Amino acid sequence: MEKMSRVTTALGGSALTGRTMHCHLDAPANAISVCRDAAQVVVAGRSIFKIYAIEDEQFVEKLNLRVGRKPSLNLSCADVVWHQMDENLLATAATNGVVVTWNLGRPARNKQDQLFTEHKRTVNKVCFHPTEAHVLLSGSQDGFMKCFDLRRKDSVSTFSGQSESVRDVQFSIRDYFTFASTFENGNVQLWDIRRPDRCERMFTAHNGPVFCCDWHPEDRCGAARGGSGRVARMGAGEGCLRTCTAEGGPSPERRPLSVSWTSRRGWLATGGRDKMVKVWDVSTHRAKEVHCVQTIASVARVKWRPECRHHLATCSMMVDHNIYVWDVRRPFVPAAMFAEHRDATTGIAWRHPHDPSFLLSGSKDSTLCQHLFRDASQPVERANPEGLCYGLFGDLAFAAKESLVAAEPGRKPCAGDRRHPIFFKRKPDPAEPFVGLASSALSVFEMEPGSGSMSWFADTAERYALAGRPLAELCDHNARVARDLGRNQVAQTWTMLRIIYCSPGLAPATSLNHSVGKGSSCGLPLMNSFNLKDMAPGLGSETRLDRSKGDTRSDTVLLDSSATLITNEDNEETEGSDVPADYLLGDVEGEDDELYLLDAEHAHQEEPEYVLPQEAFPLRHEIVDTPPGPEHLQDKADSPHVSGSEADAASLAPMDSSFSLLSVSHALYDSRLPPDFFSALVCDMLRFYAEQGDVQMAVSVLIVLGERVRKDIDEQTQEHWYTSYIDLLQRFCLWNVSNQVVKLSTSRAISCLNQASTTLHVNCSHCKRPMSSRGWVCDRCHRCASMCAVCHHVVKGLFVWCQGCSHGGHLQHIMKWLEGSSHCPAGCGHLCEYS
Amino acid sequence: MNRGGSSPSAAANYLLCTNCRKVLRKDKRIRVSAPLTRGPSAFIPEKEVVQGNTVDERTNFLVEEYSTSGRLDNITQVMSLHTQYLESFLRSQFYMLRMDGPLPLPHRHYIAIMAAARHQCSYLINMHVDEFLKTGGIAEWLNGLEYVPQRLKNLNEINKLLAHRPWLITKEHIQKLVKTGENNWSLPELVHAVVLLAHYHALASFVFGSGINPERDPEISNGFRLISVNNFCVCDLANDNNIENASLTGSNFGIVDSLSELEALMERMKRLHEEREDEEASQEEMTTRFEKEKKESLFVVSGDTFHSFPHSDFEDDMIITADVSRYIEDPGFGYEDFARRGEEHLPTFRAQDYTWENHGFSLVNRLYSDIGHLLDEKFRMVYSLTYNTMATHEDVDTTMLRRALFNYVHCMFGIRYDDYDYGEVNQLLERSLKVYIKTVTCYPERTTKRMYDSYWRQFKHSEKVHVNLLLMEARMQAELLYALRAITRHLT
């Protein structure tokens, strides 16, 4: 019978014709339905109920079914449906709960046929049986579904969903007796029309109301055409698409690689308020979600596209007025989009059950539209076909059209690419009309081991010394750390900082014109020498000057035994000479191991060869900066002691001889530069590092230099650096370092980080109740909770305990005890360990 | 605060109804003794509320979890008669006040103050003045609207309309607020604000409807708190709340009266239930019934001569609550009946064309994510909440009654359900109840204990609180529907 109907309604050789067009209705439409001849459409709404003929160029109003003087609520339609077997039969659902059938064959003006007033609340949906001429189903807000036989005056059977509000009912196209109903609470029920007592199956499909459902129209033979092998391949392709678009890592909801569908006869699409369209396979024992499309607004209607197995059209009742046609296997980008309506689309219908190119729609904006598929806009075309994403561990995944990737020859040798690119290929499906499903390639790039790792960061953070030692030592230490980790630029920066801020007292023990030979042999003594000589730990030259002023006025203050080689005259002379460059950097990047030692003259000669950036090391500074007059003299007087006066040249041997080296020559007068002379420079340097992303350097230098530069960088920037650095440290679980940084910071906003949540709650060890007032006496059981196992006194401060036997006591006592014994002091026999 | 004895200031803390005032004027010697109202509500005997409370661990847990002030306030105490509902209420309230949202925290509280001020609800105002300051609001703003940024001031119009005549809100109002400019509102912000406004208008209804007492321990006065004006006339409260209410103990004729009243109601419900099947009213009839109900709501209040405030009297009261008015503009603007005689016909809001479930939810959730789910749950909860009891009777299906209450409120705001027979309202809701509903939803500040007591005398207090919850949520939904519809229209 069904086959016959198909034959009669088939296009009969002549395809449908028409164009994209629309016509204005008098009132907003709530629903539309197409006659089986595909030439007429009925539009129903609160105050409209008309039949339009679809002609090639326009819609023509054929019949107004809304007759009678007084508008009745029975005519306020929530839904309308045209029988697919009988072109004279229509049914409407009214907002007041009445179901009306209409017979167009009636000779009278009023075509109203029957009136069923059995529902107590609004009827949301009516549905004719696809093959049976007299069976009508309705679903209402009151939670009931009723089945009517049009030959009788009242319902044949009533189905109770045991829930508020039925939103949609649909007869299965395949199973004669089955229908699906969807509910406001998110459930979908499958019923056998012969068994009104309870539903066959129920499953929760959506979060929130399920507004609509639609059975897949494809019949059994159609399904047989689709082989399962092809499907499996598509599944794989889908997975690829997923991983590319999903953020980070493999998507947890990755599609199963093989979807076995021997038939789509049990496929049911549901759309809900949760903005999803889901496709369920209900043919198996348990309803299984096979596809899920995420839309941007709640889904009001869903309709499978005829002749296209995986396509369905959706529209929304709110916010979004467009109609989308989705390929369910490609759930992220709609295959086609119709954007004609200016208000919410309320009804959609494919014009003919075997023609995929004509879609009709009615809308709240009071228009009826016919959309032609070829006129649809295809968002895919505007989509960016490449995807790029970073993984958690620095891996980079890149997906693009295969053609695009293949065309690029240099893909393979890409430096960091250790894995071979993974290709997911999708064989073109000849039956598939959607050509957009091109194959794409996914490449995953791994970071080169080490290069992406941040171990240097953690190492540096842990090994840097930030306080507690003289500045010079700190700088040197940090320089060494940096060099050890192969970060030469940073190392040099530290060295330079040392020279800038503490060179006077720290110049190496080599005298002028002494050249330090190559090799690492000089490295160690060099260090030693300034360690020994360091006399004013942690103080800048300023303070040293001050002190010396107070101490003695002597021209030559020789606080250091080895610092005697240069006299004042020398000093003066040197100053008088216009040696321009004070520092010279050797070429650093691992070209040679040579160590340049340059004295002032040498530097002078060499100058043209070692051109330094002007802004980094200003040349003729002494003229501007050296104060004249008595202060000048005073300076000179002080300088020997400060600088150790013997050292014009600071030379640093690289710790790692395979790497570059730095050689600095500095003239004696340098020490007389005001210490803040460089601060602008240093600040620039810090900003540079911070901008490079190395906030560690910025903060470390800031802390080490302390007052010397702090005032030159505004509070906010400092705070910003501090917070980013602390944040980073905490991500690396470097709690101690982060705490140290917080402690050392001078910014109030930062140091108060340590003040937050400092309370530690203790429970009594006897009664297990929290101890509120004091930490050592329990208010409830009046016992001292924490006794030292060694001295048997109450521990009021630091309490250290063994995590194995939970005995403990004063930190000092336990430490001492465990030095002598490995057993627990409490005598419990546990072998405690203190680390 | 309420225990001031006979000090004149204590008396001044209560509004005086016209009647009492007359008496007072006549007889100066009468000493108005301030009533002893203990407990969270002036209407409900303390033990009714507390009883349920001490047992309830759940409530305490909820308060800890969701209360912004961190303590069990009187509203929560009264609501805790319905713990199920309380949870969804507190969750949604907490979400709009404290969780991620487009508006800064102090603004949210200020908007709450503005909303509560429309109904002179000093209880809510005080509560949020504290919270406002606690969340870092600028104290100066509390001096009144002139001190707040223009942007917040712009909310005034919509606040006023929402509170009293939500059907007047049009997309033009929305456009005015969101149009680009210095003080414009973004849509998410606006939706957040609208939700807050509707919530606090409705909550004000609940506060007055349940006679919520001022908090016992007002924290150190920060100068911005209002004098706790209890809007109940002393004569209402004169019957001590500690002793059982006369009508409830039933020492007099009341018992017979109310018993039969209850029986009659049950009888009517039953009949309606049966009738449904056979008698079917014509369409015209249905429409007229709605219109009739709408019209009738006009006269509902005027019958209560004793306690209705003639306009002039009400303005006198304004003086007392003058400090409230600094948060509002146009204080004279009040509820006006939707169906006014001789006015241009306002189109009825067809519920089916813009429902909360289909449309309101989607819009609200889109612009202010997740609040939709919380509100949805709250509406559902209050609508389906039932213990299947009615006063002394058990196993009663109260769906019909709940629906009548809900739809009657919507009816007064001009929202019509096509599938509802408004004849039911007439059958189920007696006149005194209608008076109460109308007062609580439309001008809650005029609610009196007498009104509260006069309906459903046989019912338990917890059931009356349930009624209040229904009224509150129905009102909130009505306001939201109008506001959201306007926003939708603005969007399309």
Structure explained in plain terms:
The complex is a heterodimer of chains A (835) and B (492). Chain A has 835 residues and is α+β, with helices and mostly antiparallel strands. Chain A has 21 helices and 36 strands. In chain A, the strands form ten sheets. Chain A has a four-stranded antiparallel sheet with strand order 1-28-27-26, with no helix packed on it. In chain A, strands 2-3-4-5 form a four-stranded antiparallel sheet, with no helix packed on it. Chain A is elongated and about 110 Å long. Chain A starts with a helix and ends in a 15-residue tail after the last helix. Chain B is mainly alpha-helical and 492 residues long. Among the domains of chain B are: 74-210, AhpD-like, CATH 1.20.1290; 263-309 and 338-491, no CATH class. Chain B has a two-stranded parallel sheet with strand order 1-4. A two-stranded antiparallel sheet of chain B has the order 2-3. The longest helix of chain B is centred in the last third of the chain and has 31 residues, at 461-491. At the A-B interface, loops of A face α16, α18 and α19 of B.
Which characteristics define this entry?
heterodimer; A: 835 residues; alpha+beta; four-stranded antiparallel β-sheet; 21 helices; elongated; disordered N terminus; B: 492 residues; mainly alpha; AhpD-like; two-stranded parallel ribbon; two-stranded antiparallel sheet; 4 strands; 57% helix; globular
Secondary-structure class of chain A: alpha+beta
How would the global form of chain B be characterised?
globular
Please, how many helices of chain B? 24
Largest sheet of chain B: 2 strands, parallel
The average pLDDT score of chain A comes to 71
Shape of chain A: elongated
Nearest-integer average pLDDT of chain B = 75
Query: What share of the residues of chain B does DSSP label as strand, in percent?
Result: under 5%
Number of strands of chain A: 36
Radius of gyration of chain A, taken over Cα atoms and rounded to an integer in Å? 43 Å
Distance between the termini of chain B: 53 Å
- Greatest interface (CB-CB under 8 A), with counts per chain: A-B, 36 and 24 residues
Radius of gyration of chain B: 22 Å
Strand neighbour order, sheet with most strands of chain B: 1-4
Largest sheet of chain A, order of strands side by side?
1-28-27-26
What are the segments of chain A in which pLDDT stays under 50 over at least 5 consecutive residues?
1-13, 220-262, 409-436, 505-670
Q: Give the termini distance of chain A in whole angstroms.
A: 87 Å
In the predicted model, the low-confidence regions of chain B spanning at least 5 consecutive residues are 1-15, 26-36, 229-255, 302-322
